Amino acid sequence: MSDPRKQPVETKAGRAEAGGAAHPRPEALGRASFEHAPDAMLLADDERRYIDVNRAACSLLGLRREEVLSRRLDDFVSEEARPYLGPAWRELLETGSQSGEFELVTFGGARRTVEFRATAGVLPGCHLSVLRDVSGRTTAAEVRGRQGSFDFLAGVFEHIDEGLYVIDERGCFSFVNPAAAKFLGYDSGAELLGLPVHETVHHEYPDGSRFPAEECSHLRVLDTGQPIRGEDHLVRRDGTTVPVAYSNAPIPLAGGRGAAMSFHDITERNRAQLEQERERELLSTVLESLDTGVVACGAEGALTLFNRATREMHGIPEEGRFPAEWAGHYDLFPRDGRTPMRMDEIPLLRALNGELVRDAELVIAPKGQPPRTVLCSGRAMHASDGRTLGAMVYDGSRS
Description:
This protein is α+β, with helices and mostly antiparallel strands.
């Protein structure tokens, strides 16, 4: 009886050999490696015609394998580069290898920057090219250059009085300069980084009602890519809303399209404008209440003021007539009341031309109404820098 310990042990490998199930052959492993390589691999003959390609190559070129095999390398090179292709190919065959970058044109016409390594004669009359798409690659030098530019601009923005913040592709703060942080009520821009812009500084109307994000024109720049400018309001940390004039423009960011928003406070400007409007309203009310006729024109001669008393004298409303029309339209006559007044006789035009007019007599004779004799006085009006703004006259007496 034999010792069991000396009996041969049947292994999986032994069973496989006994059953005839062979390991993958080296050529099959090589084919699988070629087919599933992450980089595009292409085999071409001496005439640059493709004789085999892998899946990554088909994906890069935008064609099926059988479609690629009916084409040559020349079909995927830009027209401007084709004159250099022949000499480069001869150099490859002579030297045995090449590497570098070139612009590849896909079947759909897209241009891709590819990094290549080429080896001649991997088999007789067969030459291998390995391509890697680097169109979106950023080199270390480019990164340093962009970072340097960003640091420079950030330094500039840190010291400007205009508020500025950058909205990233998600609609969040990615940069806030000190002026913007201070205006919005924060100690530093760092407190805002990563927060959603609309929900933080643009979520309410001045009356306190909710402002929906879907109606936000500032965020819409991220979708449309179109710059906008105008006037709006921003919400401070304490909940108060402040009017601003702003400019919002799209900018490219690493993660997609962003936007740069610059703004400044227009509270004082709005207050001054409101005060000016009130003053104009008061002046207009005073002029309308006078029983004395007052007429004024701008620097070009167009009438700008024709108060109530003047309208009643002429029996017509205020109209922006120019000097050549004044005598006929407003029924202006010299003392005789019959001869139309010449332009150079009209008191308002004389005042506009620089004359100090005192008690200039004219007759207003509207059709169907009794004539009125008026003594006009007036002068030109000048800005603080000496520019002529216009002129005004008023009637000193009527009969």
